Amino acid sequence: MVRVSRPLPFLLLASAALVAADPHPHSSNNALSSAHTLHERTLLGGILGALFGSGHKSRCPSTFKCDGSGTDGYAYDTYGNSCPSHLPSGWHYFGSSVGWAPPKSWSCSSTWTVPTVAVSGCSKATWWSPGSNWRGKRSFTLPKWWKIYVDKNWTCAKTGLDGQIYDYNGNTVPSAYPSGWLWFGSGIGWSAPVGWLPPSNNWSPSASASASLSVSVWWSPPSTWVVPSGFTIPSFWSSLGWTNSAWPSKSWKCSGKGNDGLSFDWQGNTRPSVYPEGWLYFGADLGWLPYNGWVCDKNWVPTASASASLSVATWWAPPSVWVVPSSLTISIPTWWVGLGWTNSAWPSKSWKCNGKGNDGLSFDWQGNTRPSVYPEEWLYFGADLGWLPYNGWVCDKNWVPTASASASLSVATWWAPPSVWVVPSSLTISIPTWWVGLGWTNSAWPSKSWKCNGKGNDGLSFDWQGNTRPSVYPEGWLYFGADLGWLPYNGWVCDKNWVPTASASASLSVATWWAPPSVWVVPSSLTISIPTWWVGLGWTNSAWPSKSWKCNGKGNDGLSFDWQGNTRPSVYPEEWLYFGADLGWLPYNGWVCDKNWVPTASASASLSVATWWAPPSVWVVPSSLTISIPTWWVGLGWTNSAWPSKSWKCSGKGTDGLGFDWQGNTLPSTYPAGWLWFGVEVGWSPARGWGCPSGNAWVPSAWIPKTPACTWWSPPASWTPPAAITVVPTFWSCSPRSTIAASTTTSSRPATTSAASCSGQWAQCGGVSFTGSSCCPSGFSCSYVNQYYSQCQPVADITTTKAATTSKAVTTSKAATTSKAATTSKAIVTTTKKASTTKATTSVKATTTQKAGTTSKKPVTTSTKAASTTKKVTTSVKATSTAKVSTTCTTSVKASSTKVTTSVKVSTTAKAATTFKASTTHKTSSVKATVTTKATATKSITPSKVTVVKPITQTIIVEHTQGGSVITVHETQTVTQIVSAPAATVTQSNGWPSSGWQCSGSGDDGFEVDHNGNGCGPQYPSGWKWFGTAVGFAPPRNWKPSATWVPSSSASSSLTVAIWWCPPSTWIVPSGFTVIPSFWYTLGWSNSAWPSRSWECDGTGRDGWTVDWQGNSRPHGFGAEFLWFGVTRGWQPKHGFVNPARWSPPSAWVSKHATWWSPSRTWHYSGRCQRWWKTSLIRGSWIWAL
């Protein structure tokens, strides 16, 4: 008999779930209630959501503006995003003008430090303050409405950013100070914050204000401000960029005439003492110089600074009476003579030049300049040589020297004419011998610097000195320039047995256009290596491998010489062989190294490509090995005697952990310091006695599933587990959400959590890199799917009430089915009863039809207790399952005068018969029954296999008989079950999905049409299918777009809920597609334009990215100077970034990872400094990092 139970309890439960899940009910008299109505849940919507699991998020409308009460915020912004993880938990979204801020009811601790990213929200939330007892760190200007006064002994950070509106007595800025000034502690008092501007350019500060400005090291006025008389300018104003309008600008330049110098520089400094009186300022590029007309003393000795300045004062020369001091550190400027200066120290009559032609003078020992018989630019080289060309002087091509000049050429041993010079017939001297040595050549000869074209077709029969081929070179060789010498021309053919001389052998190494014929026998006396281009020109040695030869990759075909005939280099061990140009010299397959062998750097690098070789296990890995252990070594049977085996198991006492795993990997960075390796089953876990830090940020997400196996450790009783640990091991002493015994699974309901901070129904609630909420709405629990994904799934509560006296029984039901394909389906039912003596007979009938090749196992645990009342209970619940199965079980139990009948029906359609087994365990007896399963020829729907689940209810009729006697049993039975996703209820006449059908979440069960028979519209790509009303049309699991596909807005919306699909990595994300679904990463997607998750920088600070591995740009508060340098280092300043004096880095910055960066100028900083920073540049109350 089947009866339908009353729906009232279910509706009440759904209504209660709805109320609990709605975090923002809005009253009807709210001015914005019309905008909110579109987003609030209705009773019917809540009931349907509870029935079909349709998720709901109350997102903020795009046009919403808060009313200033602090009670109308939303848990989700206009894009449906919950509160970011870097903001305090419990904050709400109050529209685009306010953003995320604390609601009126939000509270903080008295010592709460406001994060930098939360300052904006606190400053805009006019309805909220932390309370008068708040004593958190004042790192910013507190809002006026907080009415919180600083302590009397409070000191500011001297950044100008943390001034307060009230002093320690609660007073605001006194009238003696300008409006806008803030309190910076007793040491400074009231002063100007960063960015404050004077009320006018003519503002004259009071004496009190002037005193404050002299110690406010973060502030300087605008350059337009006129300094009042009597005001002392603080020294730090210039370093902050301030300039006086009465001073020259830093870029000012003088006229170059020496008549416009100033008595102060661009910083207002007067003449430094290292310069003589009367010198003036002529710009930042020239500095302090003598003005045009300044006269020095006869014996004036300039300082080093003054000497250097004289070399740029082009308008000034000393008087002729000035005695040049020996300490003068500059050469005499050339313009001094032009300005009329003469030196009494002209060359003496006996002065001689250095013979190099580089020290000639423009006047002789009598002060005479060059005579006209000599060409222009000739210089004086002493009385014995006279006027000569300097080294580098170039004459004209047709220059005809005078008789005097001709005579002089015979003694200028450093000079030769250019080769283009035509020797005139009137030349009265012989060609000097050094001209050829200096590069001069006759136009009929090649010049010394002549170079051939490199093709071997322009050789000459004489060299640059007119010499013909030397006898050490073969006939036919030609001259190809001084750098190459005599070489074979392109096309010259040697004899088969030609043996080159030593000179000819050396020449062959530079004749890049020539190679011998292949028949040439290389003589043993050849003193050079075979040139590389010989092979490129077609020459081959039949005994060598070709350059393109590749080995077979097995390590058994190596050679003892390379493609150039070279034997094994000494940097490789004996017996190593050549395996091709791409691999080089490697160990052959079977080569055995010594136990203590230490490979060279070259050999180490080669080991990383010898995929067929691994060292013997006795080999001790040297500390100097420069490569990581190749992955194939372990595959080839190598083990490190210091590592545990893969099958090693710990003792379970927590005292035998290791510092590395079976592959030699040390503790990953995501695990706390002090954890050890306890084998593959336990992994990295805390050792016995390990003390955990406060808070729960240390808990690695990958360790959470391993907690039941770590039986030797538990956190302190005061520790609160993170939300991600939904089930706490029973051996932990801390306060549990729900508990799980070691190696035992127990089902329990999750603790009640405010829905405002929870994930939605069917939403992600956990997984590696997931930063959202780990709690779920009422009626749902966070179910583990894999290490990257956990989901809020419903908990189905099935309560069956039975009248029971005392009974003990063990009931087992089995069924055997014959079908076309073997399929096994098992459901295990365990029942525990408190009873006296009972007897029962059980018979079970079941008809099951299911698709071939499908195995389904559904464990059900039932706990029962004896009851004192006797009543008749009939329960009937309709179920939607993955297939239609008709099962009928009838149970009759008689004792006294009460009969209990329970009916359950499950209807499933499939193609093959299925074997169904059920077992019920009581304390004493056991019986067996036979179940007959019959296949039904109905339409087949493929059952789902994924973990996206919906509630399932069943109707079962069970009849218990045993030994001919029936005993009435009264008992209360509660069953909690989490089941697989239901399949669609299909209308047989047209094959469309029903309106209430929801997909399984696998992406494999979509329909070509929706429940109205409509196909995929033009706004969706071809190949998309219908996955129920909650998803709509979406891509099937294996659907692939083109690399340049741009989804429509409708398609983009569908992609955010199609949790089974991600695009291929080759897909180019279009510019308009701004929200990447978080589950794409868990499915393995990566953007080719982003760095990979495993990418690490090279440590130079030059290879950073503007986005991280998930495509996120700089976090809030990080300026353009920050780039992404990998998961380990995060966002860091790039190489070359020059910090401003008032640079305030974000509080989330971890400076110790920026090993390439240090402050390069004076920096006012109160944070933790790194050891490699220069202390001389840091200002403020900083401390050293350990």
Account of the 3D structure:
One of its GO terms (molecular function) is cellulose binding. The chain is built from 16 helices and 40 strands. The protein is low in regular secondary structure and 1186 residues long. Among the domains are: 66 residues, no CATH class; 46 residues, no CATH class; 43 residues, no CATH class; 36 residues, no CATH class; 95 residues, no CATH class; 97 residues, no CATH class. It has a seven-stranded mixed beta sheet with strand order 20-32-24-22-29-21-30, with no helix packed on it. Strands 23, 25, 28 and 31 form a four-stranded antiparallel beta sheet that branches. A hairpin with a 6-residue loop joins β11 and β12.
Please supply descriptive tags for the structure shown above.
16 helices; single chain; cellulose binding; little secondary structure; 40 strands; four-stranded antiparallel β-sheet; 1186 residues; 9% helix; flat; seven-stranded mixed β-sheet; disordered N terminus; CBD
Topology:
Elements: H1 8-21, H2 33-37, H3 43-52, E1 92-93, E2 100-101, H4 119-124, E3 182-183, E4 190-191, H5 207-213, H6 236-239, E5 280-281, E6 288-289, H7 304-310, H8 335-338, E7 379-380, E8 387-388, H9 403-409, H10 434-437, E9 478-479, E10 486-487, H11 502-508, H12 532-536, E11 577-578, E12 585-586, H13 601-607, H14 631-635, E13 676-677, E14 684-685, E15 728-729, E16 739-740, E17 764-766, E18 780-786, E19 789-794, E20 796-801, E21 810-816, E22 824-832, E23 842-850, E24 856-866, E25 885-890, E26 894-895, E27 898-899, E28 912-913, E29 915-920, E30 926-932, E31 959-960, E32 971-977, E33 1025-1026, E34 1033-1034, H15 1049-1055, H16 1079-1082, E35 1122-1124, E36 1131-1133, E37 1163-1164, E38 1168-1169, E39 1178-1179, E40 1183-1184
Parallel strand pairs: 15-16, 21-30, 22-24, 22-29, 37-39, 38-40
Antiparallel strand pairs: 1-2, 3-4, 5-6, 7-8, 9-10, 11-12, 13-14, 17-19, 18-19, 20-32, 21-29, 23-25, 23-28, 23-31, 24-32, 26-27, 33-34, 35-36
Helix pairs in contact: 1-3
